Amino acid sequence: MTVALEPRLEERAARLHRESIVVDTLSGGPPLFTEKMRQEALRLLGAGKSAMDALLATEEILVDQLASDPQARRDYLSAWDRAGVTCVSATQGGFGSPPFSFESGLEGIAATTRVLDAFPEDLVKVTRAEDIRRAHRENKRGIILNFQNTTHFGLALKRLELFYRLGIRIVQLTYNMRNFVGDGCTERTDAGLSHFGLELVRRLNDMGVLIDLSHCGTQTAWDAIRTSRQPVAFTHTFCKALSGHDRGKTDDLLKAVADTGGYVGILVVPFFIAGGPEVSLATFADHVAHAVEVCGIDHVGVGTDWGAVLPPEVADKLNQEMGAIGFRPEHRVDWNAKLPDYQSWEDWPNITRRLVERGFSDEEVQKILGLNFLRVFEQVVG
After folding, report:
1. Helix, strand or coil for residue 106?
2. In this structure, what is the dihedral angle of CA atoms 238, 220, 332, 148, given to the nearest 10 degrees?
3. Does the pTM exceed 0.85?
4. Which of 197, 228, 280, 359 is the most exposed place for a label (fewest CB within 10 A)?
5. Mean per-residue pLDDT, 360-366
6. 348 CB neighbour count, 10 Å cutoff
7. Please, are residues 144 and 293 in contact by the beta-carbon 8 Å criterion?
8. What is the percent of the chain where pLDDT is above 90?
9. How many structural domains compose the chain?
10. Closest of 305, 218, 230 to residue 262, by C-alpha
11. In whole angstroms, what is the distance from residue 257 CA to residue 263 CA?
């Protein structure tokens, strides 16, 4: 579905989306799920495997297809072209049993590296801000490697150095639950950063890694904000003032991140940004407008965190497994949910349309689409 605008606004939105550096600060990129992947997922589910293990296996199938099948590569690039996104921040090692392990981190990076190798003329591994600018200049697509948890390296900071050398440039301190660093946003307690967590924040600053607090508990986020010598980010969050959900962030936290010089990426996950059935990208635009009011126009962007296309059987099974990563029934997680104007990641241009429709100026839209993130990424990472 294309968001319908009057011709003048549609022309402006199309131009801005085409000309801007567009960065999705949490996304997996093109949402391909081929028939071969579907069949394997269903086979594994039938054999009693978890949905997370099934998704890990189908990811390997997709990588194999991209490496060997010219049509699969054309479909992949075509989907990315329809999205019109310059650069994505892609999570590494989020699937498997258990997810967020050392092994899953390595496997995720290996898979992403194979995808990059399959498109030497089209994809750019982003390890500094200039890589994003080059991707835009040369009409290529950039991929930033991120971790959404620190359990990939645990207490072994030498492993963190290894992951940095492999390309990780954004690290979220916790996912939903407690780890060695601190408490996540759905944990029973909210104790903040541990002594190790404080040390890790300083180490990430020294290394030039952007600290992500999107899933962190409130006190953990405050501790990180007060400890970090560099700007920090909520790469994919939303405004708790508009949707009272554990994954949202309060206005004072949003402003505190902005006051570090940091970045707030607004997501489009339907069951996060609204508590009822009436949700669309207009709801997302409400969150953007509120975040801009709280943080200022120089600190807000887009981190969709949504847009995968999964078979219903896989989505249903995944819904049943959300407790393993800290979601409870009250968090309303539903992998079958859809927005009418954002059915998949290929509908990304509708985000720009909604921003234009909302009344943001050309300069403001360009900042939200990518320039705000680029500034912060360059300051922290280089």
Report:
1. helix
2. 80
3. yes
4. 359
5. 98
6. 23
7. no
8. 91
9. 1
10. 230
11. 7
